[in-house]
Amino acid sequence: MCGIAVAIDWPDSEAVVRLLIDGILHRGDITDPLFSPRPHSAMCTRRLRIVDAERAVQPQLSFNGRIAVSFNGEIYNYRELRCELRAAGIVFRTESDTEVLANALQTWGPAALGRLVGIYAFVAIDTATGDFLAARDPFGVKPLYVIQAGRGLLFCSEMRPLLDAVPEGDVMLLPPGYLLARGACVRFKSPLQTSPSIVPSIGDAKTLDALLAEAARIRIPDALPVAVLFSGGIDSTLLAHYTRRFRPDAHGYFVGERTSPDYRYAAEYAENTGFDLRMVPFDADSDATFALIDEVVAATESFEPNVVRDAVCSLVVSEKIHNDGVRVALCGEGADELFCGYPPLEIAFQDTPAAGQAIRSECLALMHRVSLQRVDRCSMRYQVEIREPFLDPSIANYALNLDPSALVRDVDGRAVGKAVLREIYDLYPDALPAAIRDRTKVPFGEGAGLDATPENSGWKQRFNATISDRDLADGRREFEAFNIRTKEELYYIRKLAQNIDINRVPHLRDRAWISFPVGEYREKLKAYTHFSL
Predict the structure, then answer these.
(1) N- to C-terminal Cα separation, the chain
(2) Of the candidates 362, 340, 357, 360, the residue with the CA atom closest to the CA atom of residue 513
(3) What is the rounded CA–CA span in Å between residue 326 and residue 384?
(4) Cα–Cα distance, 284 to 357 (Å, whole number)
(5) Average pLDDT value for the chain
(6) Domain 205-525 is of which CATH architecture?
(7) pLDDT class of 178 with cuts at 50, 70, 90
(8) How many CA atoms within 13 Å lie on the side-chain side of 330?
(9) CA dist., res. 268 & res. 265, Å (int)
(10) Topology (CATH level 3) of domain 2-187
(11) What digits encode the pLDDT tens for the residues 305-332?
(12) Is 279 exposed, middle or buried (0-12, 13-18, 19+ CB in 10 A)?
């Protein structure tokens, strides 16, 4: 897990890449040597040392020195790919997954992307021809941004360094699951299925149990401590259960106080199992917490409320994990989107399968700009690599092929999602509490105590006290292109505009919203106490 900076056909390429790296020093603990594969091109990595820490210096070169790769992420099946490449006669110098990627690209070309299981954003340069290939994992767990000027391109893992280094030009994002080459930007074939099977599966808890256990196992680092972001919810409790199977000393981090809505569930699991649960103090109503907004907005590079609210919690837990000397943690991102943990998904699937599939596709497509952007920016701010087992292709493909009855069921007249995940709890009644199995979804921040009572929100009251109705009207005109609706959004976008030139980032104008018709389902939504209308 790293931050990368690459210049291709760019004047003063080495100087510009050094500027970009200076802007992402927080993303790693060592800066690898700058490498110039060709005139007017340069590559550099701020590396967080995890896999083959001492020898995995980037960029890694293919066996013949022709392909150079700057890589951010983790390839979970790199050992299997290395064995296959070795059988073909390729000799490796390191144990790193980046070297495996370089040799896979040299051997199989772009088709290598269809064999990768992992989270990644990378740029590869052919040192002989100057051709390049940039790609981003199918869900967009890892970020990659680019500025283009003529034939020249600048890549970086975050937006602000690009904006600071280049006075003109828009910052564009490479979409998840896409590759970029000279004259082409196309979706590539990956292990993730693009459409569900014709015959849906009715679901089987034992099958999913085995898949989830393996997805957790391959994300546990070999010789480093591992932690779990733990809320006492359905997803994080399952991850704690699997992680401790392979690493009994794994511990969990709970954000909040003993009065937080999530605490009693987290405490019950810890008490029943002996799980090492570490509290991360979080006073949702304090001035200090509200003051974190400046840092959170700068870190996340977003003004979306559904990013910023939970990012306040993500940032404080990432700092605690870092201070404890832990570099790798697992989290439950993706479970709600795939297995229908959000009220709009539950209601849509209860309505019709087609409506549910459409809303779920939107939720999954937006993850790279919402939950995954929050996780990446907050964790990397403190040099922590957070991994998402629920986004393993085996899990995602399984979920996407499920019949709606295995996702959402009627419970006392209300649609309740995650049906097959809840069934896994029945396989381990002594280890997985029924009280957690039967929980309703509570957003991360609310479970920690932030905005826990939307109808009387102290968080929103602060924005009302800070911004008048007239100020909101003026702000909506000032930021008309960004479709500002609330005082909270106005507060955040003003903070973001102080950090970056938002007018040079076109995708910020395309709001991260789903098309769920709230008005049509208003009465049904009232049954979900933690869904704010």
Answers:
(1) 38
(2) 362
(3) 7
(4) 35
(5) 93
(6) 3-Layer(aba) Sandwich (3.40)
(7) very high
(8) 33
(9) 5
(10) Glutamine Phosphoribosylpyrophosphate, subunit 1, domain 1 (3.60.20)
(11) 999 999 999 999 999 999 999 999 999 9
(12) middle
